[in-house]
Amino acid sequence: NKGHYEHYMQKEIHEQPESLTTTMRGRLIHRGSSKSKSVLLGGLKDHLKTIRRSRRIVFIGCGTSYNAALAARPILEELSGIPVTMEIASDLLDREGPIYREDTAVFVSQSGETADTLLALEYALDNGALCVGITNTVGSAIARNTHCGVHINAGAEIGVASTKAYTSQIVVMVMLALAIGGDTISNQTRREAIIDGLFDLPNKVREVLKLDQVMKELAKLLIAEQSLLVFGRGYNYATALEGALKVKEVALMHSEGILAGEMKHGPLALVDENLPIVVIATRDACFSKQQSVIQQLHARKGRLIVMCSKGDAATVCPNEYCRVIEVPEDVDCLQPVINVVPLQLLAYHLTVLRGFNVDQPRNLAKSVTTQ
Ligand code: UD1
Ligand code: F6R
């Protein structure tokens, strides 16, 4: 049921304040007046000790689910102090990469049925790793075959392009980082800021959704383009990959997410006055580096669209031709949840304007159950 929406993708983008609320329901604890805040993931509570003792946490997934894990990686490293590595499921299988008994392998999958992710799970089970699932589908193969896990509870996702599952996956993995990290005096302020941020996240997402018209106007401008680059780094490297994935899979426009730190190692050669480039430059520890990326792209006459924190337009824009997407600011590790929304809206509007099928992009299936 699409309600008053024209497409499932549109509905699922717009219902993110609600899906995020259900993802967090019952899992964020505000203990009375003591102001003590914590996270409770029922499916993991008996396994946290084992996870904390592991030598490495390895995220395994495909497509959007992989990108969600990439977005959560920095906060998991920071709060747990455990090395976190990333594996695209098919690549792990191609290489038969090392997985050990001392590893915690986290399988991220909206459907819980993706063939490559499922085979990687069998492989990790054979190698004796503790296997944790993060899935949206109760009773799915990944939910059943993992040792433990967390349901993201985002509600059924119908559109082939994953949108609300992505943001709920990130939120669950941020909560996972809080749960594994545990309470220490030294990280208490940081933890409280993140938990406060989680409580307020649905409101911030509601606010960023107001950019719908702005993104539609931007889509009109880009309708006939052949290609769109998206530059991000740090917490928003994943946002760049995910924004580009959305544009290519539904709008059928070539798009590439680029780690801004790699700009001079090749991508800079593409820059001219025609190719549109989105640069994500919201406030976090990478902000000044992104400002210098903008300057360098501007010096090559790059056609810039800058995503920045509210109030930063004048600070980040090198000239009057630069387009801006101003988004609400949040705690650094939650900012990717905010920043992906305008890119989801852009992909959606581009698709409709270009006359393509939004909910069932050509050649794609919602759940990839074959290799
Ligand atoms: C559970 C109930 C929820 C109830 C809540 C109340 C289910 C599915 N969930 O939620 O309805 O409101 O208790 O306390 O009945 N699991 C895996 N792999 C995965 C995902 C989950 O093994 O990929 C396991 C978990 O380890 C857990 C179980 O499935 O044993 C349920 O997980 P989850 O729904 O996340 O647990 P709760 O949030 O506690
Ligand atoms: C992109 C998309 C795919 C899936 C991928 C993994 O919008 O939907 O990239 O994310 O096929 O699917 P799950 O998460 O079901 O394992």
TrEMBL record:
UniProt keywords, alphabetically: Aminotransferase, Glutamine amidotransferase, Repeat, Transferase
Name of the featured protein: glutamine--fructose-6-phosphate transaminase (isomerizing)
GO BP: any one term: UDP-N-acetylglucosamine metabolic process
UniProt GO MF annotations: carbohydrate derivative binding; glutamine-fructose-6-phosphate transaminase (isomerizing) activity
Reactions performed catalytically: D-fructose 6-phosphate + L-glutamine = D-glucosamine 6-phosphate + L-glutamate
Pathway listed: Nucleotide-sugar biosynthesis; UDP-N-acetyl-alpha-D-glucosamine biosynthesis; alpha-D-glucosamine 6-phosphate from D-fructose 6-phosphate: step 1/1
Domain SIS positions: 47-186, 218-361
Domain of life the protein comes from: Eukaryota
Enzyme class: transferase
UniProt EC number: 2.6.1.16
